[in-house]
Write a structure and sequence with these properties.
Number of helices: 10
Structural class: alpha+beta
Helix content: 40-55%
Largest sheet: 7 strands, antiparallel
Radius of gyration: 20 Å
Shape: globular
Order of helices and strands: EEEEEEEEHEHHHHHHHHH
Distance between the termini: 37 Å
Low-confidence stretches: none
Mean pLDDT: 88
Length: 294
Amino acid sequence: MKNKNTEFINSVNLNKDTNFPYLVLNVINDKSYPLNPGFRTMHWHSDLQFIYVTDGKIAVKTLTDEKIISRGEGIFINKNIVHFVDKIDKCTYNSFIFPEYFLSFYAGSPAADLTFRITENNAISTIAFDKKTGWHKKVLNNLNKLVTLEQEKGQMYCYDALLTLSQIWYEILKNTKITNKNKESNLSIRTRCFLECIEDNYKNEITLNDLAKSANVSKSECLRCFKKTLGTTPYKYLMDFRLSKAEKLLIKTDLTILEIAVQTGFNNQSYFGKCFKERMGLSPKEYRKINKII
């Protein structure tokens, strides 16, 4: 099998090449501002991530579990963790995405060693923060402060953001029990096989039987795994994956709409346009016009 994350979309930080690679996403229902690669699709990134829900509820799903985060609550997602954030009815939330070196102060520092105890530990994939736990409240107050900082963007914006992230991280380091690295479950291994099959074959027709064979399980077990780990069906995940690939091609290439439809596994341009508009609220042509990278 490939490297464990190669079969998923690598959602690269849009600000990674700037002098302050701190990306804040404002998400309203099905829309992300700005639109980030991997949005509403199973993905991973080498950055750390905090999410703070300002209204409604979201479900944060990894290959092994799911956590429901409600208004006024938040969650930490570790680096390199394959995950998917799904809305539950109407919702709004902010994602704060940044490299782990923000928390290390300088290379080789004792703070870096403490940070690695969590970021290099695959037993810690996510940490959810509720409104009842004492130290969680401190984290949530600071996550809410990050929201305010983003809205105001004053003269000390960058420094304030770094200080607030460090305060959040201090509470996490002080209160998180470090456990041994865990062994990957059969459910996680099977799901990786299914998603690797989709990555390798999304341009072609993929049947439920094809997916099941990729992990040497029955079709019913394949359906159960998708429902358990991703909360969706193989067909819906495949469609979302194809549309996510199409988004990138629309923005970053000059391929025709027909060429993009063919390259992403749709049998004709009309069907591609219908599916794309249902997901994005815009036709492929309209979406390209608004988001095209010149």
